[in-house]
Amino acid sequence: MTKYEIMFIVKATQESENVAATADAMKKIITDNKSNVVEFKELGEKKLAYAIKNEINGYYFVMQVEANHEAISEFDRKALLDENVLRHLIIKLDEE
Question: What is the pLDDT of residue 1?
């Protein structure tokens, strides 16, 4: 399996339970596709550099995963479809 770092931003204008539920759903996408979440960090609410979908704040999450290509593709697809996810970024980490 390949190591990736995934960062995503969730809308801050919703209830805190919905923010946590969205983050858990994103984590579940990885685990449901036979991959592992190595580390999961909530970086908290931050002001965005510019407005995204009329939002000026967002909750930042970062996770390091060991995943196969199918899990990453599915995460990318669902993150694009989820209206609560403002932005996401997937970075393939160098092999050590």
Answer: 86
Least Cα distance to 52 among 9, 16, 5 occurs for 9
94 pLDDT above the threshold of 90: no
Domain count, the chain: 1
8/46 Cα distance (integer angstroms): 12
Whole-Å CA distances, 9 to 35, 53, 64: 21, 12, 15
Quick: pLDDT tens for 21-38: 999 999 999 999 999 999
Within-domain flag for 93: no
Is 16 within a domain? yes
- Are 3 and 89 within 8 A, CB to CB? no
